[in-house]
Amino acid sequence: MHAHAADPDVLAHCAALVVAHDEFDSAALISLGQKVGFGVVADFSHFTNDWSAHRLLFFLVHYGIGIEAKRQLLAKLRRASSINICFAPIVLFLQDGPADEVLDYIEMGFDDVICLPENSHILSARLANQIGQEHIYVETRTYLGPDRRRMELPGHTHPQRTGQADYTNLTLLRTPEEGVQILRRQLVVKSRQV
């Protein structure tokens, strides 16, 4: 296992697929992906199963696509048969706006939500945080994605996350050398750890 600190240069060993609602926004996100240092950046319309050969793949999503399209994209990618696609970082880019909007998208299941405009060095570092560090994902009957509790204030648990149903905690590590690895799988049964 090769863990990396959040080094923006590591993005050069990653590919990014851009999801936008029109060519103009797609071109803007492709340009952003190139500026922050991704080795390969392409429009999602070029997505085929061949992309799973990229050990480290990101999905960069433009805020302009509709809410339902965002949900469908998350569901499609999280159900992919390739571990490198299923657990790929899915990052949403928003216009600068209210913090509760960011929390809504975290709740939806995005790995990160970044408000633009932002300095390219900060963007590179934020994206690089998805690499070389352990990330907790949660799998339930209706959800597979990053642990949404990471954004909750202490003592403010979301009412739908009461621990009444079984779920699985997955600890992931993403590296350019190995792609996505599941380091640990912990089944939690009715609030009793097994």
Write the layout of secondary structure elements.
Blueprint: E1 15-19, H1 23-36, E2 40-43, E3 57-62, H2 67-78, H3 83-86, E4 90-95, H4 99-108, E5 112-116, H5 120-128, E6 134-139, E7 144-146, E8 167-175, E9 179-189, E10 192-193
Globally, the shape reads globular
Structural class: alpha/beta
Helix and strand element order: EHEEHHEHEHEEEEE
Helical content (DSSP H or I, runs of 4+): 25-40%
Walk across the major sheet and give the strand order.
2-1-3-4-5
Structure description:
The chain is globular. It contains five helices and ten strands, in the order E-H-E-E-H-H-E-H-E-H-E-E-E-E-E. It has a five-stranded parallel sheet with strand order 2-1-3-4-5, with helices on both faces. Strands 7-6-8-9-10 form a five-stranded antiparallel sheet, with no helix packed on it. The longest helix is centred in the N-terminal third of the chain and has 14 residues, at 23-36. Helices cover 25% and strands 29% of the residues. Helix 4 (99-108) links the parallel strand 4 and strand 5 (112-116). It starts with 14 loop residues before the first strand and ends with a strand. It has 194 residues and is an alpha/beta fold.
